[in-house]
Design a protein that fits this description.
Layout (H helix, E strand, L loop, with lengths): L3 H9 L19 H7 L3 H18 L2 E2 L4 H5 L8 H13 L4 E2 L8 E5 L4 H13 L2 E6 L18 E5 L12 E4 L6 H6 L11 H19 L2 E7 L26 H21 L3 E6 L2 E2 L10 H10 L4 E4 L5 E3 L1 E2 H13 L6 E3 L4 E3 H11 L6 E4 L14 H7 L7 H17 L15
Parallel strand pairs: 3-4, 3-6, 4-5, 6-7, 7-8, 8-13, 9-12, 10-15
Antiparallel strand pairs: 1-2, 11-14
Helix pairs in contact: 6-11, 8-9, 10-12
The structure holds nicotinamide-adenine-dinucleotide.
Length: 436
């Protein structure tokens, strides 16, 4: 018995024997997904969906990606740190819209030397940004008072520890600042003269090795605070990062200069050999509140002397030049370097150049026009000129200093006045206000 199907098939057979090809369909009907979409108005629904999604994302309030100029104009004070959150995310994520009110996740950050002058200002900024900060410091030149205003904050921890000993911490970023930076300390404490006493060289070499080892182990990003001293007594002026320097390897300053040069080498070795994400900053003379009084650095010397009505001591003929950077500018540069995509090294300094005599005159204008200047023989290996070329930092980090010496010096003076004459409590918090 023939099936119905067979029967119908017969009905649809062409009557004649002549071959007629099937009518051709448009080519896109042959592609299954397109055929599916075109059938039964599905295309209409797809288009409708696209329109609704576009409207939704266009009308949703959002922060637009922040331009460099916006970032540059951001103040460093508390009320504006939201701007930094957004700019930070743009930096690290490479752009994109961030819905308003959405904050970036706080990072866990170690700051070695965080109780020192620069470190404590950096800690203030990181805490204000919403990060959790662990300060590691042996208080060789740092002071608890510099960070005391964070005590009790659950996002702040302080560990008394010498970086020449290994340390294991789970962190995202390491700012490695630990190293006494003033001439007074590095001239009287070279590692090889007094083995038991913590030495500058040992801190720079072993301490940096330990922190790089930590970065490698936990996959943290590592920033080294190197120095303009790596250029020694430079034969090139101003100093560009590509200049290799003119350093005496056996002089009284060598434990600092050569120690930092070795630290840079170690940093690059860990980067190339172990894939550690690193950043290198070469810092030029920096001044501001919380500097050690009487630490032998020229700005703190002059300010302390003028306040105490002592003559300002100028070593040599006073024609040697330096550039002076206010601490908030440096901290901004360090943070941009850490968040940016470039290893460096980057010069971070103020290109404004002053002779020692000019500096003494600015101090006289600011504190005491009658302060006397006293000349003394110069110290060994004192560089004649120092001035950063900051083109690279301007181009790649969008950074340049904003605070002139005449604007920054009075802030340092009021901090020194409080600490020298004790006319205010010494909790550090009153001097944290950085400038833009
Ligand atoms: N301030 C400047 O003008 C300047 C210039 C160039 C480079 N730097 C670099 O910036 C960094 C900070 O300088 P600063 O001016 O704040 O100096 P600072 O002396 O005020 O701070 C250094 C901090 O490191 C701590 N420290 C020293 N040795 C340590 C160790 N072995 N273990 C743990 N902690 C230790 C000190 O106690 C101090 O708190 C230093 O690495 C310095 O070389 C500073």
């Amino acid at each position: 018995m023939g099936s119905e199907l067979i029967y119908r098939g017969h009905e649809t057979q062409p009557k004649s024997n002549s071959y007629s090809p099937k009518p051709t369909k448009p080519w896109f009907f042959e592609i299954r997904p397109i055929r599916y979409i075109l059938r039964e108005q599905r295309l209409l629904f797809v288009l409708l969906g696209i329109v609704i999604a576009t409207l939704f994302f266009t009308l949703l309030p959002s922060s637009s990606p922040i331009s460099h100029s916006h970032f540059l104009s951001s103040e460093l004070t508390q009320p504006t740190h939201r701007i930094f959150y957004q700019a930070h995310s743009v930096f690290s994520s490479g752009g994109g819209k961030i819905p308003l009110g959405l904050k970036r996740k706080g990072l866990r950050i170690v700051v070695t030397g965080g109780a020192g002058f620069v470190g404590s200002h950096l800690v203030d900024r990181l805490i204000a940004r919403g990060d959790s900060v662990i300060v590691v410091d042996n208080f060789f030149t740092g002071r608890k008072e510099n960070v005391m205003h964070h005590f009790g904050n659950p996002r702040f921890e302080l560990i008394r520890h010498d970086v020449v000993e290994p340390l294991l911490l789970e962190v995202d970023q390491i700012y490695h600042l630990a190293c006494p930076a003033s001439p007074v300390h590095y001239k009287f404490n070279p590692f090889f003269l007094n083995y038991d006493f913590l030495g500058i060289h040992k801190t720079n070499v072993v301490g940096t090795l330990n922190m790089l080892g930590l970065a490698k182990r936990v996959g943290a990003r590592f920033l080294l605070t190197s120095t303009s001293e790596v250029y020694g007594d430079p034969l090139q002026h101003p100093q560009v990062e590509t200049y290799w320097g003119n350093v005496n390897p056996i002089g009284v300053r060598s434990c600092y200069d050569e120690g930092k040069r070795t630290a840079e080498t170690l940093t690059m070795d860990y980067h190339r050999g172990a894939g550690v994400e690193v950043r290198i900053a070469r810092i030029f003379n920096t001044y501001g509140p919380r500097m050690c009084i009487d630490d032998g650095r020229v700005v703190s010397n002059f300010v302390a002397q003028a306040l105490r009505k002592e003559p300002l001591t100028v070593y040599g003929d006073g024609k040697q030049t330096r550039s002076f950077q206010y601490v908030s500018d440096l901290v901004e540069g360090l943070m941009r370097l850490m968040e940016g995509e470039h290893v460096g090294p980057f010069n971070l300094g103020n290109p404004g150049e002053f002779t020692m005599i000019e500096l003494a005159q600015v101090v006289q204008e600011t504190i005491d026009p009658n302060a006397k200047i006293e000349f003394r023989p110069n110290t060994e290996d004192d560089p004649h000129k120092r001035k950063p070329d900051i083109t690279r930092a301007k181009d790649l980090l969008g950074w340049e200093p904003k605070v002139s010496l005449r604007k920054g010096l009075p802030l340092m003076v009021s901090d020194f006045r409080q600490r020298i004459f004790g006319d205010h409590k010494e909790d550090g918090a009153s001097t944290t206000m950085p400038l833009s």
